[in-house]
Amino acid sequence: MPLSFSKIFIGFSVFSVILVSNVANDVPKKPYELVNDVCRKQWNKQFCLEVLKFDTRSEFAEDIRTLTTISLDVATKRLTATRDCFLGVKTGPPAILKSLKDCIDPYNFVIQSLQNCLIEDDCLLTGYDIHIAGDEVTRCQKFVDSNGAHDSFITTSNNVTLEYCWLSESLANLMCDETRG
Length: 181
Ligand SMILES: *[C@@H]1O[C@H](CO)[C@@H](O)[C@H](O)[C@H]1NC(C)=O
Description:
Layout: H1 2-26, H2 33-39, H3 45-53, H4 64-88, H5 94-116, H6 123-146, H7 153-180
Helix pairs in contact: 4-5, 4-7, 5-6, 6-7
């Protein structure tokens, strides 16, 4: 009995050492190494850092797919909150109320696209889906402009939404480069 216990113990110790040294080799040395690397290449570096650091999975992320997933998750949550805020406005100037109504469908489309784009078989279709989603935000803004609600809080929201789309699209395309290269 004591013999088999010590065998197990030694076996376990050796196993642990192998496990620890493997992990030590795989993990990037500094926190946020990949995040900083990737965000440096974005046109809005600050926005990129804020979005990705919002989720703790980014700290020791080893691939761009993880960062793309985070960006899409954060964007989906944020845009769902924006859409719900649009739905919640019941009183205000007619131009605003009409614009909010016009923008619900585009926003539903954007949210759904961002939620589903990662399951595309062809990696390049992920970036394409996000690009099309961004066009829907522009469509919403066109409604807003033609209704005379330019410079309202809807425009501010659309500008932020576009930032999420551009960041996610850019990360998705980097992700494909990573997979192929
Ligand atoms: C939204 O973005 C457009 C284009 O970049 C800019 O001209 C406009 O001032 C922004 N509006 C608001 C309210 O943020």
